[in-house]
Backbone:
């Protein structure tokens, strides 16, 4: 397997200085761009396998860069953003970003997110009908869910919700994405439906619904199916 | 016809007031109406109360279906004015005014009744008023002082209609005939000296009753009559006695001159009274305006007065954002107003000859509300049928406008002063903040800088020390990041940048997210949770409330690292209660309030504790949720934090599967 090529679009030199050696040391090939225009050009020129994109760029809005990238590029994109930009994060995720990291972040967290994004690409490529996360097992074809081998009875809606989360396993799914995929476009904005269903789903799958292991909450953004 | 002939003739005599049988503390009862004449009654009430040293009651008798709601509102304004001037206000419902006065008069044991009489309409009107006064006098056994309102003003007889003329002219002719007969009799008895006084009396009466317009022709008529009756045949002995004719003419001229002078005197007296009334009115308005604290109050007061006085709807326009006005009071029928910039050229001082002249545009009259520091806004008046404001009101409206402008100016200055105080306060706060922050920022930075530079020294450190220093850099930078995040949050919360984005949330989800985040930060938590499944959805901002819980959990962890935390929630009518208790050292009662202050640290608290922001953030977040947070002693030791969140708004409809747009089977 060839080395994974990662493009970092980030304007702050100090952050690039931290990212480049860290990633290189973990067998990634790294390219850097200091602004959106260069970033877009390099994404076209080098077809990286994964892109780390800062939302606060000097020349272009992060969301604009993301939109341009997503017009032709299906590769994973991880957003790097400053704190307290929940709205921007949700917008980026809804525009097709795969995941986000909040500054400041540690090296372990970054590497874990990169691994998840890559695994996801691999999994979708194989179209695996059976997914396993720890004790949780999901058979998408036979529509069966088991925890520790014990079958769990889910209503059709609950199953669709779990399925929607599993399709993004390890990554965050926004409220809007889940509502759209499970209830359809008419349910937009009815987040409390989602919350109530997530509550019942947790009670069926988690051993303690208030301390979930699989169905994690990303406040103000959405949910994430934990794969670790 | 708009009536601001505020006051009135001095000829109406108020009988000298004497204090008779009633006890000295019995009040004077003054019956008020709703129109502008009422001012006269208020004025009389004040004066009589002072002169007699008695309290006074201002009463309005509301007769069903007699007054419009507007008039009733105006009557209340007058009552308010009267009570400002020391009266006890009263409002009575009765089928007639006299009944109402009798009712309240006997209730309060009035010593004297003051009421207004209007210009009677025909002989029956006069009789009605007299009867009503008599009834009151009989029932209460007290004197009734009638204050004439709308008197027929001398010297300003209205131009008679043709129909009235048909009545007046024969009456004058008959009167003159009567005078002629009487004069002839006197002439026979005493000779010529008896003639001029008779005619002078007649002409004087005509002037008084119907005005100078009739007395002049009547004088001419008298001369012709005299010449024809006395100075020619069949009274030959007077023939050629021109001296007598001239003497009579002189007498009549004298009468005319006297009538003219008396008229002038009356007019001046009336003007004096009117000015006196206006002054009182302006003083009253000034007093009311002095109590106003907002521009809206000022507008309300001014508009009410103007409606009663000049019978025009009024609005106050104050400059708004951009080239617009803020129109007060906000009534749906408010007419549109041109943009401020359109007025500027019209209100420059040199543009108009009469500074009192209101500007008339698009069916409304505009008067500048100019205080000492320039224009505060405009007064917009819409008269009946969109006519311009009548000339006679210009001065009065201008005076009221000045009063209102001064009030507006005072309010504006007050607001500016308040803003300045706030600015100073926040400046002071910023300085304390900077002082506290710079210390808290420097400490971790110093550690990071020290560790990094020693790692970079040419002599390599032993591996264990290297690892130690590196871990320290990580920990200190995390602490720094947390501190900066907290500062940012608190600043934005307190400046109002962050609003609670309330959504109907499940509490267990928010708690779960907070616990998960906190565990990621400092390892597994020993925590016991009691969240009943029956808890309702709670309207809250998930991200913010998670922050509150994280801060409380972190506090518990820091002060009671080895004891379990108990997290409970339950529903109460109208609210949800959340409780986090620990078994740590607890918080002394004297600090229960202050722990929520910015940068508050308990005495003897460890140096590496928090910066004293966590609980301040909790307080600010719960505050913007409309809830409350407090701390109490945990029975058995430790601290117990309580949060009460209101369950406001309409909860979402209960979930019914069939009400949802379901896509049950198969992938889309």
Residues:
């Amino acid at each position: 397997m060839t080395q994974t090529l990662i493009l970092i679009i980030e304007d702050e030199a100090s952050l690039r200085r931290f990212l480049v050696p860290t990633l290189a040391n973990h067998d990634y090939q790294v390219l850097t761009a200091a602004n959106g225009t260069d970033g877009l050009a390099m994404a076209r020129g080098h077809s990286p396998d994964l892109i780390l994109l800062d939302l606060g760029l000097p020349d272009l809005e992060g969301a604009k860069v993301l939109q341009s990238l997503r017009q032709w590029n299906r590769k994973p994109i991880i957003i790097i953003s400053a704190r307290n930009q929940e709205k921007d994060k949700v917008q980026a995720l809804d525009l097709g970003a795969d995941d986000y990291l909040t500054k400041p972040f540690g090296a372990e967290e970054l590497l874990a997110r990169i691994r998840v994004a890559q695994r996801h690409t691999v999994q979708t490529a194989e179209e695996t009908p059976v997914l396993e996360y720890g004790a949780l097992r999901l058979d998408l074809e036979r529509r069966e869910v088991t925890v520790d081998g014990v079958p769990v009875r889910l209503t059709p809606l609950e199953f669709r919700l779990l399925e929607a989360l599993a399709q993004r396993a390890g990554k965050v799914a926004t409220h809007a994405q889940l509502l759209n995929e499970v209830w359809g476009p008419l349910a937009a904005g009815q987040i409390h439906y989602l919350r109530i269903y997530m509550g019942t789903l947790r009670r069926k799958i988690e051993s303690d619904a208030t301390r979930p292991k699989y169905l994690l909450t990303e406040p103000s953004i959405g949910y994430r199916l934990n794969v670790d | 016809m708009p009536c601001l002939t505020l006051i009135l003739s001095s000829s109406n005599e108020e009988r000298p007031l004497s204090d008779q049988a009633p006890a000295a503390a019995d009040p004077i009862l003054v019956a008020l109406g709703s129109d502008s004449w009422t001012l006269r009654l208020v004025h009389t009430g004040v004066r009589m109360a002072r002169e007699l040293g008695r309290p006074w009651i201002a009463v309005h008798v509301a007769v069903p279906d007699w007054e419009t709601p507007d008039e009733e509102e105006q009557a209340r304004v007058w009552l308010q004015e009267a009570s400002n001037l020391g009266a006890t206000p009263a409002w009575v419902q009765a089928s007639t005014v006299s009944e109402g006065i009798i009712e309240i008069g006997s209730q309060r044991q009035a010593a004297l009744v003051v009421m207004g009489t209007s210009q009677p309409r025909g002989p029956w009107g006069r009789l009605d008023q007299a009867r009503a006064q008599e009834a009151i006098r009989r029932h209460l056994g007290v004197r009734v002082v009638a204050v004439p309102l709308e008197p027929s003003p001398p010297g300003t007889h209205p131009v008679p209609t043709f129909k009235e003329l048909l009545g007046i002219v024969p009456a004058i002719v008959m009167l003159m005939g009567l005078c002629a007969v009487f004069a002839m009799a006197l002439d026979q008895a005493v000779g010529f000296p008896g003639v001029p006084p008779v005619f002078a009396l007649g002409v004087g009466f005509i002037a008084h009753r119907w005005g100078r317009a009739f007395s002049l022709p009547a004088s001419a008529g008298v001369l012709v009559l005299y010449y024809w009756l006395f100075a020619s045949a069949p009274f030959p002995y007077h023939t050629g006695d021109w001296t007598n004719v001239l003497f009579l003419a002189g007498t009549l001229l004298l009468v005319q001159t006297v009538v003219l002078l008396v008229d002038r005197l009356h007019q001046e007296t009336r003007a004096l009274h009117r000015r006196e009334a206006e002054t009182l009115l302006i003083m009253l308005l000034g007093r009311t305006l002095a109590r106003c604290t907002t521009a809206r109050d000022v507008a309300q007061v001014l508009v009410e007065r103007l409606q009663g006085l000049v019978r025009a709807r009024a609005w106050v326009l104050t400059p708004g954002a951009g080239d617009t006005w803020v129109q007060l009071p906000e009534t749906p029928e408010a007419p549109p107003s041109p943009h401020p910039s359109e007025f500027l050229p019209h209100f420059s001082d040199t543009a108009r000859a009469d500074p009192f002249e209101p500007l008339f545009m698009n069916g409304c009259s505009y008067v500048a509300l100019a205080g000492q520091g320039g224009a505060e806004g405009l007064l917009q008046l819409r008269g009946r049928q969109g006519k311009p404001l009548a000339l006679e009101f210009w001065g009065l409206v201008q005076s009221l406008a000045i009063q209102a402008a001064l009030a507006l100016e005072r309010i504006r200055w007050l607001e500016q002063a308040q803003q300045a105080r706030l600015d100073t306060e926040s400046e002071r706060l910023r300085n304390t903040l900077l002082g506290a922050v710079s210390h808290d920022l420097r400490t971790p930075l110093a550690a990071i800088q020290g560790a990094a530079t020693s790692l970079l020294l040419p002599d390599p450190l032993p591996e264990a020390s290297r690892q130690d220093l590196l871990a320290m850099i990580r920990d200190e930078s995390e602490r720094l990041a947390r501190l900066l995040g907290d500062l940012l949050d608190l600043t934005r919360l307190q400046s109002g940048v962050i609003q609670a984005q309330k959504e109907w949330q499940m509490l267990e989800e928010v708690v779960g997210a907070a616990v998960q985040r906190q565990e990621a930060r400092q390892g597994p938590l020993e925590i016991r949770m009691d969240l009943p499944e029956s808890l309702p959805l709670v309207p809250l901002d998930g991200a913010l409330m998670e922050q509150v819980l994280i801060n409380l959990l972190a506090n518990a962890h820091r002060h009671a690292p080895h004891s379990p935390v108990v997290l409970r929630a339950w529903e109460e009518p109208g609210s949800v209660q959340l409780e986090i208790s620990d078994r740590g050292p607890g918080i002394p009662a004297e600090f229960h309030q202050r722990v929520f202050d910015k940068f508050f640290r308990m005495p003897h608290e460890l140096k590496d504790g928090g910066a004293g922001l966590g609980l301040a953030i909790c307080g600010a977040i719960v505050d913007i949720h409309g809830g409350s947070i407090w701390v109490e002693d945990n029975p058995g030791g430790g601290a117990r934090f309580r949060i009460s969140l209101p369950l406001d708004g309409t909860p979402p409809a209960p979930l019914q599967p069939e009400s949802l747009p379901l896509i049950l089977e198969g992938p889309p």
The longest strand of chain A covers residues 4-9.
